[in-house]
Each structure stands twice: as C-alpha cells, then as structure tokens.
C-alpha cells in the first residue's frame, strides 16, 4: 500500500513538462509507461492506470510527432489496448517510407538521402529507434500478431537489419 501510494504521487509528474532527451512530455510519459508495463506491473496499479490515462488523452491529438506515435503504439500494445494500438499503427503506416522492399519511418522535414557509389547510407539512431518501436508494436499484438502483421513486420525488420554497421551494431546504444 505504501509503495502504491508513493508511486501514485509520482504519477502527478508524468503529465507535466519534463524533458529528458526526448521530444516532449508525452514521449517521456510513454517511455516510463513502457518500462512499467515491461516489469510487468498490473494495469490496476495506480501509477500505470494514471499514465495510461494521460497517454490515451495525448493519443487523440492530431499533431503528434511520428516518434511519439511509435512510442504510444508500443505502450498501448503492451497494455492490451487494441483499438488505440491499431489506430496509431494505421496512422503510422500512412507516414511510412516504403522503399526497396522495406519499410521505415523518418523525421518530418528530413533531407532526402543521397545515393553515392560505394557508400551505404545509415539512418540517424532516432529513426532506427522509432522504426524499432513500430516493429515492437506490430509484434506485441494480443493474443498474437496476424499473418498480415507478421508480413509487414518482416519489411520493417529488413530495413532495421540494413542499418547495422559491419560489426553488427548500430550507430548508438539506443
């Protein structure tokens, strides 16, 4: 009870303007909620319940950044909120970059990639990260991903694997 009460007080801070290397408070709230759901804390836990309420409210905003949508989709997938997850994934699919038999997401307003001989372009780590969250949202479908989702997920995985450096890693620890 004491831990639940203390964590409930922390939930007040989840919807305020905290910045921690993410674009906005919604992204930070989604990160924290994802971590709590992966523990896994039950949905009845006050902190999780309050955080999900904040995210549901934020998900209805039309101006959400593609990165934020990716985080929200994964958070709702973990929470078993199928309708919210599906709505976000449908919105994200409209913003997807489909190229060379693969699918990924990039930041709005980004300069187009330059095709140079003997050079393999690697996307910035934020784009690898957001594309990975979309992949996780597709694969975390409950009860299980459909064959259509698995096929689409394989196109995402193809792009992500193409971003690996020669040693098998990526451009950052993210």
UniProtKB/TrEMBL annotation:
Superkingdom assignment: Eukaryota
GO cellular component entries: extracellular space
SUPFAM superfamilies registered for this protein in UniProt: Terpenoid cyclases/Protein prenyltransferases
Gene (UniProt): Pzp_0
Name this protein carries in UniProt: PZP protein
Gene3D superfamilies in alphabetical order: 1.50.10.20
InterPro entries, per database record: A2M/Complement_sys, Alpha-macroglobulin_TED, Terpenoid_cyclase/PrenylTrfase
Ranges for domain Alpha-macroglobulin-like TED: 8-174
Organism: Sapayoa aenigma (broad-billed sapayoa)
Pfam families, per the entry: TED_complement
